[in-house]
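re: ur msg from earlier - yeah i can do the magnesium ion complex, just paste it... oh wait u already did. ok heres what im feeding in:
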Amino acid sequence: VKRSNYRIASIPADGIGPEVIDAGIAVLKKIATTLDTFELDFTNFDWNSDRYKKTGKYMPDDALKTLKTFDAILFGAVGAPDVPDHISLWQLRLAICQPLQQYANVRPTKVFRGTHSPLRNCKTGQLDWVIIRENSEGEYAGHGGRSHQGQPWETATEVSIFTRHGVERLMRFAFETARSRPKKHITVVTKSNAQRNGMVMWDEIAALVAKDFPDLKVDKMLVDAMTTRMVLKPESLDTIVATNLHADILSDLAAALAGSIGIAPTSNLDPTRENPSMFEPIHGSAFDITGKGIANPVATFWTACEMLSWLGEKEAADQLLEIVEDVCEKGIMTADLGGSATTIEVTQAVCDEIDSKL
Ligand code: NAI
Ligand code: MG
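and the outut:
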């Protein structure tokens, strides 16, 4: 049999990015060689804030052309204390996601076996969500401007852009995702009471798409009320679809409710598969713990599972996620989850478990 060989571009970038990406690649290489049913080939890119400070650019001019030759992109985190966040975000992460039309940002969250939700009554299995975030337009379309800078009458606008094309393709992807999950339930998040243009069209398109999914249970929530439902009735939610900004905020809340921002993954998908998709832990570069060797690698391991699954290796992905949960259940966890293990110790424990289980 001919084995699939996947070419992965890795962009560790800043802060704890390189620490968790090293851990993720170690685990991915381990599972590939152990299963021996597929191969992974990594190419590392040093596109980070140091490069920006030295050359004025995060990426070379032909970066997108280069990335298009890969099957997937594994990304760490971007952001440095001495570079404004809007520069690092727009010149690296968004500079990849938006032109590569990775319009669906998929953010699963659950309470792992062996870990605890800060919600007193929430047990493993009661919080198991996937948030689908619009990733190409909305509030992060970059429209707007500033005039009269520095004057008392300075004006700035930040215009949200919602297109029928952009909303409909995202809604369809979200409804398909809901259909693939056992609960067959989707919650459409909106703010159409206050935002009476884009959000009203968003609701209308959701209702239209819902007609093609009669097997799904569909409900609608205003984003503010959604935060209370996530906290008070986590078991009442399954698949959640929201705008770029709303889902950005809700997914950090989701990660915290599941135990730590250090476990949650993100996939930036081009569902048409014309371009490679990008996979990253949800957290940022975490300057406060950089270099201490205590960054939780679990978010990157789950990210690796999401990447394998997207590449067509769902069985390996499911096995790896089980193993990561087994390691948590054994109590081998970093400090953010209440444990005392280092990044390397958790990584080694996952590799050992791959050895003994697969
Ligand atoms: P952050 O996610 O980097 O950190 C928030 C808190 O969570 C910190 O206390 C940090 O120590 C902790 N934390 C994060 N990841 C962890 C892990 N794997 N294990 C243990 N603890 C972890 O968010 P913050 O502080 O708002 O941003 C720091 C920088 O990261 C900024 O420059 C920001 O722009 C950037 N950022 C980049 C993202 C990306 O590349 N996709 C996403 C979010 C932030
Ligand atoms: Mg965020």
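cool cool. The first strand starts at residue 4 and ends at 13. ping me if u need the other ligands too
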